[in-house]
Amino acid sequence: MFKAGPPLAQQIQPFRRFPIIMRIMMVSESFLPRTNGVVNTVMRVARFLRDTGNEVLILAPGLSGSRDFEGIEIVRIPSVLVPGIQNTDVAFTSTNQIAKIMRKYQPDVVHLASPFILGERAAKAAKQEGIPTVGIFQTDVAGFAVHYGLAFAMRAADAWVGRIHRMVDVNLVPCSDMDAYLRGLGVENIHRWTRGVDHALFSAQNRSG
């Protein structure tokens, strides 16, 4: 189980007073010390947003984790580890509690990284507060259900994913298959966000021979 921590809204420090481009709240279903594709993407996007002059806050499960990522503040949500499913935390909070955090942080936009449990609450809170949302769909939740012997939950997972992404203002997907999947769930306003190459890591200058 989780340990009690300070009220979530009190975890946020006052925002900086100098001009910034945008104030962005990133909501992730998992984050460090967990390691998975969603965490890797959130780290890279958070770095990019910070380095291009934006103020970033990460909202993530796990009170035991760090509250700072390379100078980016993390607000941790009480959560439990799902038995039998590696690297998966379920956050326990309410839409109203997330809305309080949003009112204190005052984000210009909310970035939802593979929203499911925490992301669903954040999507509802953002809608309630009139804050635009961007949803990233990159996790095949129904496929995971089958993989972990929960095939009976596939339809429920599909319905839940569709409900979340229909609430979101802009949905981003990495490939045509995921585009088609969301459209099949009645989701609109979908745009392609293809994967890139890190030129610092993969450069012709580094090749051998």
Can you tell me about this structure?
There is one protein chain. The protein has one domain (20-194): 3-Layer(aba) Sandwich (Rossmann fold). The protein is built from 6 helices and 10 strands; from the N terminus they run βαβββββαβαβααβαβ. The chain is an alpha/beta fold and 209 residues long. It starts with 22 loop residues before the first strand and ends in a 17-residue tail after the last strand. The longest helix has 15 residues, at 37-51. α6 (176-184) links the parallel β9 (170-173) and β10. The strands form 2 sheets. Strands 3-4-2-1-7-8-9-10 form an 8-stranded mixed beta sheet, with helices on both faces. Strands 5-6 form a two-stranded antiparallel ribbon.
Topology, element by element:
Blueprint: E1 23-28, H1 37-51, E2 55-61, E3 68-69, E4 72-77, E5 79-81, E6 89-91, H2 95-105, E7 109-113, H3 118-129, E8 133-136, H4 141-147, H5 154-167, E9 170-173, H6 176-184, E10 190-192
Parallel strand pairs: 1-2, 1-7, 2-4, 7-8, 8-9, 9-10
Antiparallel strand pairs: 3-4, 5-6
Helix pairs in contact: 2-3, 4-5
